[in-house]
Amino acid sequence: MEMTFRWYGSQEEKITLEEIRQIPAMKGIVGTLMDIPVGEVWPKERIKSLKEEIEAAGLTLKVIESVNVHDAIKIGLPSRDRYIANYQQTIRNLAAFGIEVICYNFMPVFDWVKSDLDYRLSDGSSTLAYIAADIPEDPEEIIKKVENSSNDFELPGWEPERLAQVKELLQAYKEVDEAKLRENFAYFLKAIIPTCEEVGIKMAVHPDDPPYSIFGLPRIVKNREDLDWICQVVDSPANGITLCTGSIAEDPANNVYEIMAEFCQRDRIPFAHVRNIKFIQEKDFYEAPHKSEYGSLDMYRILKAMYDNGFNGYIRPDHGRMIWGETGRPGYGLYDRALGAVYLNGLWEALEKENQK
Ligand SMILES: [Mn+2]
């Protein structure tokens, strides 16, 4: 297990690499090149300088989150082959600089959806929440809402240029049901996984967030059956999952502990996002502090499922609250994610020592 921290790059962040390096036992950065438009090749020189900057700060760069998949691929447009060729080239370019894992998702239009990016907890901290009644019916309203509460940070997967055409995008997805989206996903995986095998990279698909349909859009990475289908459609260790405990558990029908255990055992989880959520009622929830007692998930059980089933990939504390007066990119402050990382490392140390007896 190796602890990592998502960082958006010096142009996009007020959090410095030095601050991240000072988190005890923090080893690596989960990096990105946010300014490269979706579908374009990531240039080698940009990857090289990102890696050098991170390594100069005493951290490693082994995981990229995300290389986003162009809508033409998800919709299955004739132009998809060009975007797939670009994706293959990006995989090769990343591998040339020692990247081992690429996190991505296959969600139509919206990368993730929350109703509230500044949900106040009783201790005064601020977090992300999903309250179904507060999700507007009109998708354009949710875009405005997210833009207005993003503290002027660009949020991952919410590229303003792309979402400016949301009406056209939604129209383009009209003919894409779950079966069609699955067919397009299989087409994509069959094209890129051989490239990954050739250069030694693992793809790791992030579950849908939330893991059920919203705005009438299809969802195909939402439960155990979907993950099983993905692993089988191209049966290769290079075709893996970013198991995000928060996202998977957002559907109470999903047993996050069993899913974690099964896919760790099948060696398909090269990367894990670990966070806690607290259900308010039915499927409504907010993102809770990591420690088990604050949320609806048992974090010890999650890490034990990983440990017992041989997890040896990268892990990050996923999101954190805004605490101690910090302001920044919602979900991605320094302090609470640092606390999460230290807590997860503590649980892991206990599991290791308990099993060394
Ligand atoms: Mn996640």
What structural keywords apply?
single chain, 357 residues, alpha/beta, TIM Barrel, eight-stranded parallel beta barrel, four-stranded antiparallel β-sheet, globular, binds manganese (II) ion
How would you sum up this structure, described in words?
With 357 residues, the protein is an alpha/beta fold. It has a single domain, classed as Divalent-metal-dependent TIM barrel enzymes (TIM Barrel, Alpha-Beta Barrel). Helices cover 39% and strands 16% of the residues. It has helices at residues 17-21, 44-56, 71-75, 80-95, 139-148, 160-163, 166-172, 178-199, 224-233, 245-249, 256-265, 299-308, 335-356; strands at 2-6, 28-31, 60-65, 101-104, 116-120, 126-130, 202-205, 239-244, 271-273, 276-281, 284-288, 314-316. The strands form two sheets. It has an eight-stranded parallel β-barrel with strand order 1-2-3-4-7-8-9-12, surrounded by four helices. Strands 5-6-11-10 form a four-stranded antiparallel beta sheet. Strand 2 (28-31), helix 2 and strand 3 (60-65) form a beta-alpha-beta unit. The longest helix has 22 residues, at 178-199. The structure holds manganese (II) ion. Manganese (II) ion binds at residues 206, 244, 246-247, 273, 318.
